[in-house]
Write a structure and sequence with these properties.
The protein is an alpha/beta fold and about 900 residues long. It is about 45% helix and about 10% strand. InterPro entries: Leu-rich_rpt (IPR001611), LRR_dom_sf (IPR032675), NACHT-assoc (IPR029495), NACHT_NTPase (IPR007111), NLR (IPR051261), NLRP_HD2 (IPR041267), NOD1/2_WH (IPR041075), P-loop_NTPase (IPR027417).
């Protein structure tokens, strides 16, 4: 490995000397390093000089000397060559990685232990209201999502159709997902500035150049990075670890590279583009912290996804050289749904492999962890107990710990350093770019587990009432707006089981003899009264950790019964059903939502999970009250719902108003909505059409069937499709009793310059030949985008179709598909044959269930045989 590095450095030196004056290089060495220059170098050739410098200063020292000379002399044309070779050396240095945070004896090549991680287009902003583990569970239910993959070296490339320059990219991902791994782009200067290092400078004032010199002192010769010839990238890693206020609203504006200011002001101006607008910025963050940066400052949001099911297996098979052991681990992980879900996180795969390698490699493998608590407790057994820093840090929301934080918790910094060396898999000590000491946990879940262990030990060893502690923890978790204590609670309750206490026997002065039955009773009561569907689901996870699954088994029996519609589910049973649907792979096809008999509250508890599984909530007895939950799901950054069928419910104007808050949210991805057979009045329709004008609303396909007062609703639709903000491409108004007068109302919108409709459904609308005259005018309009038209099950007759043919043969007509089924046609075939013979766009024509007879078909065949005919399908 060292030989490869030296060869790259030698090549770099030779390339540099070939592009600059050799004598200048020698004079520089003699002036700055006289003690190291013994023989005269004037008679050396380029290769010998390069070899000598490499031997004297080593790879890193030779590289720094070369960079200093280039920067001092301003030789930018050779800088690109040097940087390319420099990146190759850095890449070789980083091709090796420690497994987790272990010692050098566990050093492995990255391609031997890690699999590819997917970076996809994401969404910015939003308030996080659930623990990251819940987000993983939701992702596992969204298997049919079409991800738009982005390669690391294309992060700053505009997506197809996007003209705006991408300056700032925010990459989100839950803890342990791999946000800091990347490939390098065609960059001249790349400055990694982790927030955990910048935090230490929050009380100082710097100019941008001064700040860079603090972290990169070897670049002090660099006077300017604003040249148009240079491409500069700043990488701000770990926004979630930032302790700066980042006050974008009130911080003073500054555009001067040389002006000194606080680090907070400096960063906000850099991110906003006031300072160095030509630079590129890459910011990484956990989802909960992403909203700290205003959306208008972000040009592109990406998301690092974890392992899918096949990649989980790939990880374990790469991790172990013994095929039999890898097979055992894969089978065991799959047998526990909670463990399998958590393996979405690469770090948890590493934790699991550490534990299971020891347990499953033995002949007696009865004591193999099946729950999260058991897995983390087994993992803890190889570690050394480390005071109380875990719980206090979790309580404050701390992810990293500086020397001051540890001192406040009564921990000696030298002791912490000692623990970071011993407990390498749990707690690690890092030196930032500026060499300050920073301590952190390898993964947040380890901190949460240790916090639970600490609370449990304190409780048992000091004779505290375990039930009161559990009640307090349950209440604290339910009060948390972002699910901060969800996983901690699961660990704490799981530790109360005798089997887990046995694992901790050497840490406990006595055992807790209290039964978990009272805790189970308390949790069941909370499930009955809990208003948050997300918190209820976590309470079922807690019951699972306590080995209590009666409610879940009850629901499984319900799903397998033939009498689902006869059984009325209570709200707490709906919470259990939501948990089962979320954590099981085999129940989705068994469950028929229309057979579910429950109250409005029951449906509300089901909604967050149903959206992950079903696209149709038709006939689900939804009322206006349900729409608040519907809207919250649509607003979630984790929602990938693009289609939603809400037909045959009882949604009124109030429900639509609530629904619109979700539809107009930047996170909402809904493109297709069916609101047929609901109770929308004129006000509700107007609210919906106003919402459709929102720049964040992505709806392109709408279906309506109105029960009454059709005229007023059609006017709202007309106003929308003819508005400048209309994005609607498909409108299905079939099964409305709109008649010819309704089509006439629509006509002004259809010929509007702003109308973007490509597909219009008017089947079963009681239309006659009079509507055909209006539609012909629309097809002939130069503004028409219409490609598909459904006029089936009407009363157009031959006269209507003859009028329609005038539009079909017009040069402006773009119609590709036409459905004329069930329209009492028999004498219009010659007109249709003329359309087929014409240079039209028509590719599909439906004429079934009309009285065409043999004579009519013969006439059609004349058109079909014409060389101009492009028809591909005739029904």
């Amino acid at each position: 490995f060292q030989v490869l590095q030296d060869l790259d450095t030698l090549c770099l030196l030779e390339q540099t000397l070939n592009n600059i004056d050799k004598e200048q290089f020698i004079r520089y060495l003699c002036k700055n390093y006289p003690e190291c220059i013994e023989p005269p170098l004037e008679n050396y050739d380029v290769h010998d000089i390069s070899k000598y410098v490499l031997e004297k200063f080593g790879s890193e020292g030779a590289l720094k000397i070369t960079l200093k000379i280039i920067l001092e002399k301003g030789i930018l044309k050779t800088f690109r060559i040097v940087l390319n070779l420099h990146y190759k050396i850095i890449l070789n240095l980083n091709l090796n990685a420690y497994v987790g945070n272990s010692h050098k004896k566990f050093l492995s090549f990255l391609n031997e232990i890690f699999t590819k991680l997917l970076i996809t287009e994401g969404e910015s902003g939003g308030v996080n209201r659930e623990h990251e583990v819940r987000q993983i569970e939701e992702l596992t239910k969204s298997k049919d999502i079409q991800e738009n993959e982005i390669k690391c070296n294309a992060l700053f490339n505009p997506v197809p159709g996007q003209r705006k320059r991408i300056r700032t990219v925010l990459t989100k991902g839950i803890a342990g997902i791999g946000k800091t791994v990347s490939e390098n782009q065609d960059i001249h200067f790349m400055f990694p500035l982790p927030f955990r290092d910048l935090n230490l400078k929050r009380h100082n004032r710097f100019s941008l150049i001064q700040l860079l010199h603090q972290y990169f002192p070897e670049l002090k010769e660099l006077k300017n990075i604003s040249s148009e010839e240079t491409k500069t990238l700043f990488i701000f890693d770990g926004l979630d670890e930032c302790r700066l206020p980042l006050d974008f609203k009130n911080n003073e504006m500054c555009c001067d590279l040389t002006q000194e200011m606080s680090v907070d002001v400096l960063l906000t101006n850099l991110i906003m583009g006031n300072i160095l607008p030509s630079a590129l910025l890459w910011i990484t963050s956990r989802p909960a912290a992403a909203s700290q940066i205003p959306p208008e400052c972000i040009d592109q949001v990406t998301e690092v996804r974890g392992f899918n099911d096949s990649e989980k297996e790939e990880y374990f098979r790469k991790r172990f050289n013994k095929p039999g052991l890898a097979d055992k681990i894969v089978v065991h992980i799959k047998s526990s749904r909670s463990l399998h879900i958590m393996c979405h996180i690469p770090v948890f795969c590493w934790i699991s492999s550490t534990v299971l390698e020891e347990r499953l490699d033995k002949s007696d493998c009865a004591d193999v962890p099946k729950t999260l608590t058991q897995m983390y407790t087994h993992f803890l057994l190889i570690q050394t107990h480390s005071k109380n820093k875990k719980y206090h840090g979790l309580e404050k929301g701390n992810l990293i710990f500086y020397e001051k934080d540890l001192t406040e918790c009564g921990i000696d910094v030298s002791t912490a350093s000692e623990y970071s060396a011993i407990c390498t898999e749990i707690f690690k000590e890092e030196f930032g770019i500026y060499r300050e000491r920073v301590f952190c946990f390898v993964h947040l879940s380890i901190q949460e587990h240790l916090a639970a262990v600490y609370v449990h030990l304190e409780c048992v060893n000091n004779n505290k009432n375990i039930l009161n502690v559990h009640k307090s923890a349950v209440d604290r978790a339910l009060q948390s707006e972002n699910g901060q204590f969800d996983l901690f609670l699961r660990f704490l309750l799981g530790l109360s089981l005798q089997s887990n206490q046995a694992l901790l026997s050497r840490l406990l002065s006595k055992h807790c003899e209290e039964s978990s039955e009272e805790t189970v009773t308390y949790i069941k009561e909370k499930i009955r009264n809990e208003s948050s569907a997300e918190r209820s689901i976590n309470l079922f996870h807690c019951l699972n950790e306590l080995n209590y699954n009666s409610l879940v088994e009850e629901i499984r029996n319900f799903l397998s019964s033939d009498r689902q519609s006869e059984t009325e589910l209570k709200p707490d049973q709906c919470s259990a059903l939501a948990y089962v649907l979320l954590t099981s792979e085999d129940v989705m096809e068994e469950f028929d939502l229309k057979m579910c008999n429950t109250s409005t509250e029951g449906y509300r508890r089901l909604l967050p999970v149903l959206f992950l599984i079903f696209r149709s909530l038709a006939g689900a007895n939804l009322t206006d009250e349900s729409c608040e939950s519907l809207a919250s799901v649509l607003q979630s950054s984790n929602s990938h719902l693009t289609e939603l069928d809400l037909s045959f419910n009882s949604l009124g104007d109030l429900g639509v108003k609530l629904l619109c808050t979700g539809l107009s949210d930047p996170h909402c991805k809904l493109e297709k909505l069916n609101l047929s057979y609901n109770d929308l009045e004129y006000i509700g329709m107007k609210l919906l059409c106003d919402c459709l004008r929102s720049p964040h609303c992505k709806l392109q396909i709408l279906r309506f069937v109105f029960k009454f007062k059709l005229k007023f609703r059609l006017r709202c639709v007309l106003n929308y499709v003819s508005s400048a903000n209309s994005n609607l491409k498909e409108l299905d108004l079939g099964c409305n009793n709109m008649r010819d007068s309704g089509v006439k109302l629509l006509s002004a919108g259809l010929i509007s310059l702003n109308c973007k409709l490509q597909k219009l459904g008017l089947d079963r609308c009681d239309l006659t030949h009079e509507s055909c005259e209006v539609l012909t005018t629309a097809l002939q309009s130069p503004n028409s985008c219409m490609k598909e038209l459904d006029l089936s099950y009407n009363k157009l007759g031959d006269d209507g179709v003859k009028l329609l043919c005038n539009g079909l043969t017009h040069p402006n007509c773009k119609l590709v598909k036409l459905d004329l089924s069930y329209n009492n046609l028999d004498r219009c075939c010659s007109n249709l044959a003329s359309v087929l013979s014409f240079q039209s766009y028509l590719r599909e024509l439906e004429l079934r269930d009309n009285g065409l007879q043999d004579s009519g078909v013969k006439l059609l065949c004349i058109g079909l045989l014409d060389p101009q005919c492009k028809l591909q399908r005739l029904g």
